[in-house]
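User: I'm designing a mutation panel for 4-coumarate--CoA ligase and want to avoid disrupting the core. Could you give me a predicted structure to guide residue selection? Please restate the sequence first so the numbering is unambiguous.

Assistant: Good idea. Sequence first, for numbering, then the predicted structure tokens:
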Amino acid sequence: MEEKAVVPPPPSTSPAIDPRSGFDAVSRTFHSLRPSVPLPARNRPLSFSSYAISLLPSPLPPLPAVVDAATGDALSFPDLLSQIHSLAAALRTEAGLSKGHVAFILCPARLDVPPLYLALLSLGTVISAANPASTAAELARLVGLSKPRIAFATSETAANLPGDVPTILLDSPQFRSFLAGGGGEVPPEEEVGQMDVAVIQYSSGTTGMVKAAALSHLNFIAMVAGFHASRKLPAERRRREAPDVTVVGAPLFHSMGLFFLLKGIALGETTVVMGGGGGVRVMLRVAEKYRATALTASPPVVVAMARWEEKIDLAALEYVICGGAPLHEAAARRFVSRFPAVELRQVVIYINTSLLFVYICLNSMRHQIYKYKLNFYKRKKENNSLKLLR
């Protein structure tokens, strides 16, 4: 049977939907007002890894795929894909991982984390990453929620893991051999469905005990599809003569850090990972060094940028993505005044609602700051909806 791309119906097909807010009073659901983008046929077996690799051009981009800001080391797209395939084979044969297993990951930002994430996703193994600064008691709680088959850590972080969880150290000769292709003969792959769980993430605990939220491969596929459809046209990109470089200030275990890492790889961009450390000064110097076109930041970073007085060259910077908490309007105004040519975007990621992704454009040459308080439902990314349950 011929497969066809699934295009979600536009919200305007229902007369009950408010064209200003996207709210359907009948179903009590907010719909995105952005045009829907095609998605792979829902019944087609497809992991996020396979989808991401399918979006890459041939030949592969000549620029680095991932850069470690702390060391300056970089991983090219050919090397990244080679490590993904080698690691997936080794984890199947040597570690016995397969579809439905959970891998608990406890390590700082490293160049071997991106191939690990994508190798696990290609197997249908669920990623469950946690903050390396967590205490042993906190980690025991998270391990109890996710019930991992295996853990990946470093020699510095492994000590806080429960002793009954088998652990592979990323800084060990064993793992280095996995990356280099030491997995032996590759057994047949299991089919991974788009609705299969891809990632388990954890709530912050601000409303009580920490809770786990499961996200599917389709959640990530749908979000990346929206970015892929809305990215700049090739002709415009050539005129700019500058590659897309995103400095990810959020840790890779955080929802924003994880998503922008995966998005950058899928779109053939360069992603510079910082792991959430170093402070504002280091982050801005990294953005200057790598001619960043985008920067992910928390509200305190945006506030500090607005007050920045030292000389710095951020001429390549096109937009700052602010997430993790709401940004106060006054802080947004100060940022607009300090960086008038940079678009400031507030992003809200709700992991408890299957990676609902909301953008609010706070400023640019085309948007006015007084729209800051615009109802955020109008800005949801493509293929997203939000239903009120109460």
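For picking mutation sites, this is relevant: Residues 1-12, 363-380 have pLDDT under 50 and may be disordered. DSSP finds eleven helices and 17 strands in the chain.
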